[in-house]
Design brief:
Helices cover about 70% and strands about 0% of the residues. The chain is built from eleven helices and no strands. With about 325 residues, it is mainly alpha-helical. The protein has a domain of about 230 residues. The C terminus is likely disordered. Helix 7 packs antiparallel against helix 8. About 30% of the residues are buried.
């Protein structure tokens, strides 16, 4: 065993003996096993493609509801776009409501709303991958679309509520009791939204109680990110030229959505690790821990696609290295 491997195995043994550290390592390992980076990228792409059509839909509806009251429309829109710190002002100035005939508008809005279903479908696929749900037990297309409607409805209402709270709970300015109270209320609401999102996008065989810990983690983490968002992305847009500012807005929006996707997936992975007790995980193998074997078996069984198909998993003990002794001849 070379010195580097010896050092890594020493660290491995240390983290396996300490539960908090072993849990964190297990979540990170599970995220990698499930291709979490690819899932986060897919969620980011779907959300980025959908965010502008959905915002355009939102602006158009505001135009009809509020009529010619431009000031009220701008106030509501800015409140909603506080979910995208610093980037909200650029988005507000870029959006214009749809106008035209009623039929053309209805067709256009239907197409825009349909674009939002891409996010809900990707989110349901991501949750199925995180929980290693066998293909035979995943919901049908019709069921996924029905869940998508619910997700969009709850997400829209939650956006309005959390935006109003987040707009007064950032870390900029003096931390007054009102700001702290608004931040606490935003955290509670975000936790509830995470619980609802996890429940709707996860198969029914997973009990709701198994979704609560990750929802609490995700809701609090998202609230902190929202409060710190100005510090995270403002340097990308400050003092930028008009052309550079456009690209900075796009890159900043992509980065922000990607960060949110990773927070959501890590929270979901924490639920799985906690529910199935998938820790401690090993950093180097062999040997495999019991949690390693359970995680690998779940990944294998995930590939079942038909009711008559069954995947069985077994593990063999690693072979011991052969020891060769040289025969000693006569002196």
């Amino acid at each position: 065993m070379n010195p580097l491997e010896r050092a890594v195995r020493h660290v491995d043994k240390y983290q396996q003996r300490h539960t908090p550290l072993a849990f964190v390592v297990a979540v990170v390992r599970k995220f990698g096993d499930d291709g979490g980076g690819t899932l986060a990228t897919s969620l980011t792409y779907s959300a980025f493609v959908a965010v502008f059509p959905l915002l355009l839909l939102f602006v158009t509806i505001l135009g009809f509801v509020l009529g010619s009251n431009q000031d009220a429309e701008d106030a509501v829109l800015r409140s909603a776009l506080v979910e995208f710190p610093i980037l909200g002002d650029q988005l507000v100035s870029s959006l214009r409501p749809l106008r035209g005939s009623g039929v053309a508008l209805a067709v256009g809005l239907a197409g825009l709303a349909w674009g939002g279903f891409g996010v809900t479908q990707t989110a349901q696929h991501a949750m199925a991958e995180v929980w290693n749900v066998p293909g035979v037990h995943r919901p049908s297309f019709v069921a996924r679309m029905a869940r998508g409607v619910i997700v969009l409805g709850i997400g829209g209402l939650g956006l309005v509520a959390t935006s109003a709270l987040a707009s007064v709970s950032t870390f900029t300015g003096e931390l007054t009791p009102a700001r702290l109270a608004a931040g606490a209320a935003a955290a509670v609401l975000n936790v509830l939204l995470f619980v609802a999102a996890f429940r709707i996008t996860t198969v029914r065989t997973i009990a709701t109680r198994q979704l609560l810990a990750g929802a609490a983690l995700g809701g609090v983490a998202w609230t902190l990110l929202q409060a710190l968002g100005g510090y995270l992305v403002s340097h990308q847009l400050r003092n930028a030229s008009e052309v550079y500012g456009f690209f900075a807005t796009v890159l900043g929006l992509l980065s922000w959505i990607f960060l949110g996707a990773r927070v959501t997936l890590y929270a979901a992975e924490a639920n799985v690790v906690l529910a199935r007790r998938l820790w401690p995980r090993s950093l180097v193998q062999p040997p495999l821990t019991r949690a390693d074997k359970r995680a690998l078996a779940d990944i294998a069984r995930q590939e079942e696609r038909r009711p008559e198909e069954s995947v069985d998993v077994s593990f063999e003990a690693p072979e011991e290295p052969a020891v060769h002794a040289e025969a000693q001849g006569p002196d």
